[in-house]
Every structure is written in structure tokens, then in C-alpha cells.
Amino acid sequence: MKPPSIPIEQASTKQDILEHLLRQGQASAIELAESLDISPQAIRRHLKDLETEGLIQHSAEHAAGMGRPQHIYQLSSKGRDRFPDRYNQFAVSFLDTLIETVGEDQVDQVLHKQWQRKGIEYRNQLGNGTLQERLEKLVLLRRSEGYVAEWYAVETNGQPSFIFTEYNCAIAHVAESFPSVCGHELEMFGAALNCTVERTHWMVDGEHRCGYLVRANS
């Protein structure tokens, strides 16, 4: 028997909920309803479905001045796996084998060269526009590779700067065992954009995103 099809509108709304939780880390039903401009009743139906599917989970949180706790929702491991994560435990095992074979320093040099190559590849695609234009192109490139990425303008010490954020990591499993790769990735962003890039948030530290402060070289 063929399973019933899911209306496109419902599938789209559920994906919007998952992406919102990916970006924000957690949210209540009311916050989701307001953000997505959907009725609280409809949001709760979608949340119930997503929780039944094992894609989200909730915890009870007492709001100030209120006796009844509200549910705070976040992605489960299964829900986070819905977003691209190209490297799995095979990559970690492969790196372990390389370290046993040629040594940690040699492997680190290879990883560094790989990120340098990626930085040059990006830089050639970004062109010679303004820093904002180059960052816009980088975000589009990362999105085409499966990242949930965004940017926005800020001001630091009177100088225009930008925050660049990614909410999923294609090398998450590798970074957990070899956090040095994140340092190489940070250097890669700086080389690709030809600017100063500083880390502001890091998934390896338990945060729900990786964030970077991007500013012109002084």
C-alpha cells in the first residue's frame, strides 16, 4: 500500500521549523509561531509531528511569574543529521590511520595544504569586489555546498565589519576529534576574503553555530 503523501505546505513549514531551530538553537512554540507567522495551534501540530519523527526534542522551562512550564524545542541528533554533514566516522578513522602511519605533524601539514588550496579556489571565485560583495559571494558558495550560512553588517571601533555565521558543519565529526582543522578553516576564510577573520562562536565548544567577525585588514 502506498503511504499517504504529505502536502507541500506542511513539508515546507516543517522544514522552516527545523531551519529556525538550527539557526536559533532553541525556541518555544509561541516564538516559532511569531517568527514563521503561523498560528500557535498549527505550530503545535507540526511540532508534535516532528517530535514523533524524532527530529526535535523538548525540555520544560518555567517562565518567570508563571506556574505552568513551557516547552522549549531544539533539534535532536537525528534532526541535525537532516542537514548536510558530508564527513562521517570513516573520515575520523582515516585520519587516525594516517597519524599512526606518518605521524601527527605530517597529517597536520597535509590538512593545512588542503585548506590553502580551498582558500585559493574560493578567492578566485570571489573576485575583486568590495569586502561585502566578496562575503556575499562566499555565503552563496557555502550554501551551494550545503551549508546553512548567512551574514550581516556590524560596526567595530567605528569601522564597518560583518558577522559570518554557519549553522551546520560538514566536518563536524572530524573537528570533534581533530579541532586543529577548524584553525585551518579559519585561515582559509581569511585567505579567501583577503581580510581579517576572527572566531566568535564555535560548535566544538558546544554552541549551535560557528560564527566569525570579518573586517578589512588594518
From TrEMBL:
<feature type="domain" description="HTH deoR-type">
    <location>
        <begin position="10"/>
        <end position="65"/>
    </location>
</feature>
<dbReference type="InterPro" id="IPR014075">
    <property type="entry name" value="SUF_FeS_clus_asmb_SufR_cyano"/>
</dbReference>
<dbReference type="InterPro" id="IPR036388">
    <property type="entry name" value="WH-like_DNA-bd_sf"/>
</dbReference>
<keyword id="KW-0804">Transcription</keyword>
<dbReference type="InterPro" id="IPR036390">
    <property type="entry name" value="WH_DNA-bd_sf"/>
</dbReference>
<dbReference type="Pfam" id="PF13412">
    <property type="entry name" value="HTH_24"/>
</dbReference>
<dbReference type="GO" id="GO:0003700">
    <property type="term" value="F:DNA-binding transcription factor activity"/>
</dbReference>
<protein>
    <submittedName>
        <fullName>Iron-sulfur cluster biosynthesis transcriptional regulator SufR</fullName>
    </submittedName>
</protein>
<dbReference type="InterPro" id="IPR001034">
    <property type="entry name" value="DeoR_HTH"/>
</dbReference>
<dbReference type="InterPro" id="IPR011991">
    <property type="entry name" value="ArsR-like_HTH"/>
</dbReference>
<keyword id="KW-0805">Transcription regulation</keyword>
